[in-house]
Write a structure and sequence with these properties.
Length: 332
């Protein structure tokens, strides 16, 4: 059986001091007294602790370091979130190390195996069960983005797009559309929460839609194009679509033009994310927009609360929600 790697958190727990005190003692800093330093050294020797090459060379151990985990840095949405998180961390003089998991559960697990001894806290997107995170990053605070948490050591920044999707479907119906399809995420076995919001909004408007009006799409321009072709093959009378994100929507718009369809005259398109990239499309993309700057800033702020208190029991859950709203441009 593989031996579990000893982390700086284990040394801190054994010595009864903070992680920062451990790093100062191991780096022979003058800010701590001799007795405390010796207690730390004894604990490190007892546990056979060896700082990682990463911790020794790339990151100063007396500085707070956050691991930001995203599924795809090529997707501008995650780039925007990362940028805002970097700004918020920089304002606190914290380091941020970014990990791209390629939206793959195995890669997530590989990331967890190396991240625990390198960072003070983790922020990001995970599909793995909480038990995996708890076993691979013991003692490290984790802030999920866009996912609920159960472990009291963890926290969540929730994205609520229900009202924004309702606005989008209502807008389409008022414009005369009754045959509305959706291009959803295709990398999960279950329908996305955005699909649930879409069907709920359609039902409120009296639309008779079923799952045949939804096609799964890869998270890319090409994925959006292929999914639109599949949807139109099943429902040639579709006059509007709502998509899981803006990247899929942009791919669908490009494919619509290749098919000789005018956007929005022949096919109205609404995305989800509100990316700045959508504003430079022709026509500019209407989208259910999320404030990515607030999302990244809120995640870093929550890390600060976790590190200061160790739990979030006093935190009002409503303070940890980013709500989306319809951003009207010209594609719908």
């Amino acid at each position: 059986m593989e031996r579990k790697r000893v982390t700086i958190h284990d040394v801190a727990r054994t010595a009864g001091v903070s992680r920062q005190t451990v790093s100062r003692a191991l780096n022979d800093k003058a800010e701590i007294d001799g007795a405390t330093k010796q207690r730390v050294l004894d604990a490190a020797r007892e546990l056979d602790y060896r700082p990682s090459r990463f911790a020794r060379g790339l990151v100063r151990q007396d500085t707070t370091t956050i691991g930001l985990v995203v599924p795809d840095l090529l997707n501008p949405f995650f780039t925007e979130v990362a940028s805002s998180a970097l700004d918020a961390a920089r304002a606190r003089e914290w380091h941020v190390v970014i990990y791209d998991t390629a939206d793959n559960a195995e890669q997530e697990l590989s990331t967890l195996k190396v991240i625990g001894s390198q960072v003070d806290a983790i922020v990001g997107y995970f599909s793995l069960p909480e038990s995996d995170l708890d076993s691979h990053v013991p003692g490290v605070p984790v802030v999920f983005i866009g996912r609920e948490h159960q472990n009291p050591r963890f926290s969540s920044i929730r994205i609520d797009g229900e009202d924004g999707v309702r606005e989008a479907v209502t807008h389409l119906v008022k414009a005369g559309h009754r045959r509305i399809g959706m291009l959803d995420h295709n990398r999960r076995p279950e329908p996305s929460i955005r699909q649930h919001w879409f069907f709920a909004a359609a039902a409120e408007q009296g639309l008779e839609l079923d799952t045949s009006w939804v096609v799964g799409a890869s998270q890319s321009i090409e994925g959006g194009a292929e999914a639109l072709d599949e949807l139109l093959a099943a429902h040639a009378d579709v006059t509007a679509i709502f998509t899981f994100n803006d990247i899929i929507a942009i791919g669908a718009m490009r494919q619509a033009r290749k098919r000789g369809l005018r956007v929005p005259a022949d096919l109205a398109v609404i995305g989800f994310d509100g990316l700045e990239l959508g504003a430079i499309m022709e026509p500019p993309l209407t989208s259910v927009g999320i404030d990515t700057r607030r999302l990244g800033t809120l995640a870093v702020d929550q890390v600060a609360r976790l590190l200061a208190r160790g739990d979030t029991t006093a935190q009002d859950p409503e303070d940890l929600v980013v709500r989306a709203s319809l951003l009207l441009r010209d594609s719908a």
